[in-house]
Specification:
Rossmann fold; 2 domains
Length: 307
């Protein structure tokens, strides 16, 4: 099974690198600068679960991509999606399965329109990872890694089984799911709650909880997101809600969203894809989302200031 990982950053580099380490056929679609780094230093993964340096990992640049692959592992930011699609489109053939690991849901519509719904699986990943100053992939938490994928209609197809078997050797927490769209919605509920709360307040969960009204605000955002998901037909499960309630109400928690960290770094943010689209779906379902609107206004003001 031939896999092309779009990018070799924190997400694509980690999951693609672990699969390559396990002997799987992985090629990284990268820009010239990243290709030069990988050729010079190899793909370096620093992890509490074991470091590895993969010398001369297979790479290809967009203008040289002329082969079809069985799987496209897509892990770009939402604001880079259009450029990513242009770069990997030549790799998509009649039997190619695209596994998008973007947050939210709007990217599914974009990919469906470009490639056809039958080529686009559902997918999501969980990992705390970053690129350090040496451009090494650094995994920050040893037990937090997962990659789920599946047919969006819930079927356990032959291609999903084949991908699951291929990915298993990578020891990346991969699993085929028969409820992948629900899982994607659940992750979106959590991420939007975290991103809206920590970005708006410019503080970690523990600091917000310690502020007057902080707990009510966080849980109010959670409730708005949960209501939107329910209206869409994907009400989060009780086990999920119990788990995130613990995450969102732990006193002293240092937990923040990557969006908040991006704001601190002056980087672009996925305001429209994460928070804006949740609001749009709430409006369509006539679900009130006043707290999300406040957070979204803040994020758009940040984007205007940054521009």
């Amino acid at each position: 099974m031939r896999i092309v990982a779009v990018g070799a950053g924190a997400i694509g580099g980690f999951f693609g690198g672990r699969l390559l380490q396990a002997g799987r056929d992985v090629t990284f679609l990268v820009r010239p600068g990243r290709a030069a780094e990988l050729a010079r230093d190899g793909l370096v993964i620093k992890s509490p679960n074991g470091d590895v340096t993969l010398q001369n990992p297979p790479t290809v640049q967009a203008d040289k991509l002329n082969e079809k692959f069985d799987v496209v592992l897509l892990s770009c930011k939402a604001f880079d999606l259009d450029d990513a699609i242009k770069s990997f489109a030549p790799a998509v053939g009649p039997q190619t399965a695209i596994i998008p690991l973007l947050n939210g849901m709007r990217h599914l519509d974009v990919l469906d329109t470009r490639f056809g719904k039958d080529r686009v699986l559902g997918g999501w990943c969980g990992i705390a990872a970053t690129l350090n100053e040496h451009r090494h992939v650094v995994q920050l938490a040893p037990v937090f890694q997962s990659l789920s994928f599946g047919e969006r209609d819930g079927a356990m197809s032959n291609r999903v089984r084949a991908i699951a078997e291929n990915f298993a050797a990578g020891n990346i927490g991969s699993q085929a799911s028969e409820k992948i769209v629900l899982e994607m919605w659940e992750k979106w509920v959590l991420l939007t709650t975290l991103a809206s709360s920590t970005s708006l307040m410019r503080a970690a969960i523990g600091h917000i909880l310690a502020a007057p009204g902080g707990r009510d605000f966080i849980l109010g955002v959670r409730d708005e997101c949960t209501a939107v998901a329910k209206a869409a037909g994907y009400a989060p499960g009780e086990a999920f809600l119990t788990r995130i309630n613990s995450m969102l109400t732990t006193e002293g928690s240092p937990l923040t969203a990557s969006m908040f960290r991006d704001i601190k770094a002056g980087a672009p943010v996925e305001a429209d894809h994460i928070v804006g689209d949740m609001i749009a779906r709430g409006d369509a379902a006539k679900v009130p989302v006043p707290k999300l609107r406040i957070a979204y206004t803040h994020l758009k003001a940040y984007e205007n200031q940054r521009a």
